Amino acid sequence: MIKLLLVDDEQIEREGMQAILERSFSTVIIQQASNGQMAVEIANEFQPELVLMDIKMPGMNGLEAVERISARHPSTHFIMVTAFDSFEYMRHAIKLGVKDYILKPSKPSDIVVTVGRILNKIEEEKQFFEKEKLRLQKTLAVIETDVVTQLLYDHVHEVHVDMLIEMLEIPYSNEMFIMLVVLPGSEKVYHSSIKEKVRASKSGWVGPLYNCQLPIVVFRDTTQSFRSQAMRLAREILSLAKVDFGEEWFIGIGSECTSWEGIRQSYHHALMSSMDTGIPAKFHFYSDDVTPHTRNQDPLKKHREKEFSDLIRRGEWEQIRVHLMNITQFFENENGNILYTQQRLLEVLWLISRVFMEMGIETQTPMYTYQISDYRQLQPATDQLLDRMIKSYEEHFSKLEADTIHQLKQYIIEHSQHDISLDTLAKRVGLSPIYISKMFKEKLGINYIDFLTECRMEKAKKLLSDPRKSIKEITFEVGYHDPNYFSKVFKKVNSFSPKEYRKSLIGK
């Protein structure tokens, strides 16, 4: 059914128009308003898809009412109904996006043809929008994975995070934490099943499945404690393994944090808490391992991360190897727990892995592949993990292309109307998504999403100069799926809405 609002200060005109329309169209629901102010108030609640608006009315005239209604409901269609065949009236109406007009008096057949044409257009838009909604669901899954990737390894623009939260309709809290699901294999069916469970609970975002590990950003539910929430979700996810796949998974639970910057630390904590998968409960909290005493003894806390990162970037592997040996020796002399020592060594190896990702170097997340029982086994196992990472470092620089950034810019400019993810860009140039994101910021000074948004906004500005195109049509042509979301982004980038921009163009 299509909602239609009739606006005219003469009751006999309204009643006659409603009779004609109800005889001719069985798919319309009609309400009436006797003046412009009443039309604005009814439209806010009724939300009509089509408004037949008289121009000359006491108080607020039809053109003012159209402007007020379209400001709050940009997808509404309008047909002007007037006894004045004036060019000036219609020029103003066209500026406001009015689709057609009916002169008083008109034959019923003329009214039916004009209204029928717009109703058909609305039906076509509805069908198109339904298809777009299905495509949007797939797109949101890609965006969700992209944002989690950037949150864990890179910076993500707050505007896009806030809008994504709104689009995904996930209750948002300033407190969050990471859960890391360790899977027995990398089958995509695992990923989909867990994603559906998390999406149904509206508790967080699911990241990319990589190296048998699936990170989940979980937003805190302040109605229950951190441990209660984490344990409940962990058990729901683990129940999928037993019921659907006959497998046993393990979940590491990181620490709570209150900012996007702290989410990476929670991720590392989740990685460390997922090391000992032999725990009967099949999930483990990082906070259960760390005590103030052991934290003060940790030599990594004395190490300056930036200096160590520079050693990695320069490829000074002997110094890095010596540092790992010193950590092992330190805890062996202290008769430290072997599992705790492994965790401290992995912190260093994960720092190398993170720097690699920023540099665009593909490497597996370093994990010990067998149970270490004593310090004699620990050192060679650590050397083996480091050697594998060194090999990835050397292979990377043998194939890196100098014109990568130019290729990516050109591709985004030419395909900005399509859904472009970090993964899409990475596959085009054979680099990791993390490196692509980092490259944009270092070379261009902006996030890749911001560059894509700039391209779309430039195209939108050109399309807005054509008064025949509606805001909804432009929304889809530049690559968005929701006119309201498009309007928010346009106003954020340009400081005024698409309608305000179009009005300024026509004024000039």
From TrEMBL:
Residues 3-119 form the Response regulatory domain. Keywords: DNA-binding, Phosphoprotein, Transcription, Transcription regulation. InterPro entries: CheY-like_superfamily, Homeodomain-like_sf, HTH_AraC, HTH_AraC-typ_CS, Sig_transdc_resp-reg_receiver, Tscrpt_reg_AraC-type_HTH. The keyword Iron does not apply. Residues 406-504 form the HTH araC/xylS-type domain. Gene3D superfamilies: 3.40.50.2300, Homeodomain-like. The modification 4-aspartylphosphate is found at D54. This is Response regulator. It comes from Bacillus salitolerans. The lineage of its organism: Bacteria, Bacillati, Bacillota, Bacilli, Bacillales.
